[in-house]
Amino acid sequence: MEEDTLFSKIVKGELPADIVFQDDRVTAFRDIHPQAPIHILIVPNKIIPTVNDVSEEDEATLGHMFIVARDLAASEGIAEEGYRLLVNCGRHANQEVFHLHMHVLGGRPLGRMLQGES
What whole-number distance in Å separates Cα of residue 17 and Cα of residue 88? Predict the structure, then answer.
């Protein structure tokens, strides 16, 4: 069994969070350090450390994360203007919590995906 993470403790109700959705597969809650007016994290209830650790048995859960993201974007009022879904994998991508998670960001123009040399 994987070691508990900050996110698994939120899923189990051991740490406080502003949970906006939860079912038997995923939990969604507001980021405590939002990078946009709307910044929600969607995590699988099962600990999957990174995208590299995804297995075929996780396929339905990962697809469900996109359905939840779509529904949250609609309920948060950002679906029509647009929003960004972001999943980081590993240290070079700045993954801070090693429990796979999807960021739902919106509520303002988000600019380019990556800033860098053109």
Answer: 21
Residue 57's identity, in one-letter code, is: E
**pTM for this model (two decimals):** 0.94
Q: Which sign, positive or negative, has the C-alpha torsion 110, 99, 66, 79? A: negative
Local confidence band at 2 (pLDDT 50, 70, 90 cut-offs): low
CA distance linking residue 15 with residue 39, whole number of Å: 19
Residue among 59, 33, 66, 61 at smallest CA distance from 45: 61
Q: Is 101 a catalytic residue?
A: yes
- Out of 39, 99, 101, 103, the active site residue is 101
Q: pLDDT (tens digit, 9 = 90+) per residue, 53-102? A: 999 999 999 999 999 999 999 999 999 999 999 999 999 999 999 999 99
Domain boundaries, the chain: 6-106
- Taking the C-alpha atoms of residue 75 and residue 28, their distance in angstroms, rounded to an integer, is 13
Q: What percent of the residues of the chain are helix, what percent strand, and what percent coil, each to the nearest 5? A: 25, 20, 50
6-106 has which CATH code?
A: 3.30.428.10
